[in-house]
Amino acid sequence: MQEPQVHRHDRETRRAEESGFSLVEVLVVVAILAVLMSIAILSLTDAFDRTKQRATMSDMRSISKALEIYRADTGHYPANGNTMAQLVLLLIPYQTSVLPSADAWKHAYSYATDNVDSYTIASYGKDGVDGADVSYSTRFQFDRDIILSNGLFVASPEG
Predict the structure, then answer these.
(1) Rounded Cα distance, 88 and 97, in Å
(2) Burial readout 13-27 (b: 16 or more C-beta within 10 A, e: otherwise)
(3) What pLDDT band is residue 95 in, cutting at 50, 70 and 90?
(4) Which phi and psi angles does 112 have, rounded to 5°?
(5) Which of 143, 137, 139, 85 is nearest to 110 (CA)?
(6) Rg, Å, the chain Cα set
(7) Tens digits of per-residue pLDDT, 115-143?
(8) 148 bridge partner residues
């Protein structure tokens, strides 16, 4: 009669041992989740930087259009040496929307002109430091410079 009781006790012991997860299983799952999260965060950061790059280019086009309207009205571009804040104030009557004085990374645009018939607007990218220009092959290197000259991009991620 005691054999069935021992047999039943063995079944209960086995069930108790089999239920739940071992520490190794939990650690493996946590490690896999950590790897997946790091990949997702890197992808999300790149997506934000691509968005900022596109927004910067759009803002540069808007500034360029205002400069072209200013030139059509006055016969020349605004003088060299103006900061972007000064330039934005000067272009108020020649724009349809508020012009930004800084790029999407919060660095001031650079404006230069030959005081005759040529101008350049530059964004120094994510790092805000004048350096190498961006091209199609380096479009995911967000520290590179975006340059717009006379209404056309001479250095842009679009190629």
Answers:
(1) 11
(2) eeeeeeeeeeeeeee
(3) confident
(4) -145, 150
(5) 85
(6) 30
(7) 888 999 999 999 999 999 999 999 999 99
(8) 121, 153
CB 144 within 8 A of CB 127: no
Indicate if the pLDDT at residue 145 is higher than 60. yes
DSSP 78-135: PPTT--HHHHHHHTGGG-SSPPPSB-TTS-B-EEEE-SSS-EEEEE-TTTT---PBP-
pTM over 0.85: no
SS3 113: strand
Give all strands of the β-sheet with 110-113 in edge-to-edge order.
Answer: 110-113, 119-123, 146-149, 152-155
Would you list the domain boundaries of the chain?
2-155
Residues 28-56 have pLDDT tens digits of 999 999 999 988 888 888 899 999 999 99
Asked whether the beta carbons of 87 and 101 are under 8 A apart, the reply is yes
